[in-house]
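Help needed: design a sequence for this.
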């Protein structure tokens, strides 16, 4: 067996391991391939129509259409909400509506980066898996997280947007969104079994 390819592969893995965040970087390279960043103009055709409109300062979408929910099973509905500008489709929002009485929620992190959505579903048996929050180069959370009552992420953090919280002062099975505009995230997640501080806050309680 030629030695040159083995040496090259070993050097490549070593470089990725050192520069891209340990095994997280290695697994991202192996599973998703390399990313190449290049400069683009605001009207570059490689950008999606929605991004080009946003960069041009035209950011006002049409009024949202009525949401048409489809039942997957008891307590779980899904919908696709198109985003249009001047009647032209630009993007779509994939929505899920979950009854917290019928389902339990877990916030999980795997810094090795060796599971995709299908892997998470197979490992947990979850009905729905959603990627959440933001992560550092080594795959650890960049925002405060509570996973099975264990705190992860930074202990010092400024948050003014929102948090997803399960348990705590709302009761052990209470799942809710918390507006952090007037509440410290430590207080919001105190005693929680699962929680994730993130931004922006897209859903708020109606007055």
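Sure. Designed sequence:
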């Amino acid at each position: 067996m030629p030695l040159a390819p083995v040496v090259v592969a070993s050097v490549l893995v070593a470089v990725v391991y050192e520069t891209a965040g340990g095994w997280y970087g290695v697994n991202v390279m192996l599973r998703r391939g390399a990313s190449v960043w290049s400069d683009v103009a605001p009207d570059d055709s490689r950008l999606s129509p929605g991004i080009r409109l946003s960069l041009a300062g035209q950011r006002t979408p049409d009024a949202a259409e009525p949401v048409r929910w489809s039942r997957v099973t008891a307590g779980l509905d899904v919908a696709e909400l198109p985003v249009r500008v001047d009647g032209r489709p630009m993007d779509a929002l994939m929505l899920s509506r979950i009854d917290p009485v019928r389902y339990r929620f877990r916030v999980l992190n795997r810094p090795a980066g060796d599971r995709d959505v299908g892997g998470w579903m197979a490992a947990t048996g979850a009905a729905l898996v959603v990627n959440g929050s933001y992560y550092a180069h080594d795959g650890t959370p960049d925002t405060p997280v509570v996973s099975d009552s264990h705190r992860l992420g930074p202990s010092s953090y400024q948050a003014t947007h929102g948090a997803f919280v399960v348990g705590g002062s709302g009761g052990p099975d209470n799942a809710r969104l918390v507006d952090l505009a007037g509440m410290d995230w430590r207080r919001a997640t105190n005693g929680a079994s699962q929680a994730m501080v993130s931004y922006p806050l897209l859903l708020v309680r109606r007055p």
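Residues 104-207 form one domain.
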